[in-house]
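Report of the visiting student (M.T.), summer placement. My assignment was to run the structure pipeline on a short list of targets and document each run. The first record concerns Uracil DNA glycosylase superfamily protein.
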Amino acid sequence: MTLARSFPPIAALGARVLVLGSMPGAASLAAVEYYAHPRNAFWPIMGELFGAGPELPYEARAARLREHGVAVWDVLRECRRAGSLDASIVVASERANDFPAFLARFDQVERIYFNGQKAEAAFRRHAAPRLPDDCLDRLTLTRLPSTSPAHAGMSFAEKLANWRQVSDHAGKPVNQ
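After the run finished, the structure tokens were exported:
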């Protein structure tokens, strides 16, 4: 069982939405890039919503999301897991990222979108209890269908339709 450690968020001051995964998979950890698996639908969806598609270099995609007020991070700072599947994460090994500090710094975040069920469950278990009530009161928490290729029961078009609410709430590009 490998100890997996996440990496810093994609975020800029003025971010209005935060997209949370659980923990980067093996391809992402190796590339040090969010959603690096070639069959993950995250970047194709971001391409449709914000022009941050996989045809752009990673840094350009990240910059495009920051310009649109979208932050991306993972709930877990570290965990033990065999392979890349969320189902393989050892719950007792889960350690959350520092959400009180993140949400204090990025205090315009109003909505958190979870990329799948595991991200939501881990946030509610580890992060939400550590947040002050006034912080939780200002946030809308929404689970979206996972963009993982392991979540094959939903078509790309169906996933995209669900994910459109991210762009509905992110708004126009923000000034840096």
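The chain has a mean pLDDT of 92. Residues 2-170 form a domain with the Uracil-DNA Glycosylase, subunit E fold (CATH 3.40.470.10). I thank the supervising group for their guidance throughout the placement.
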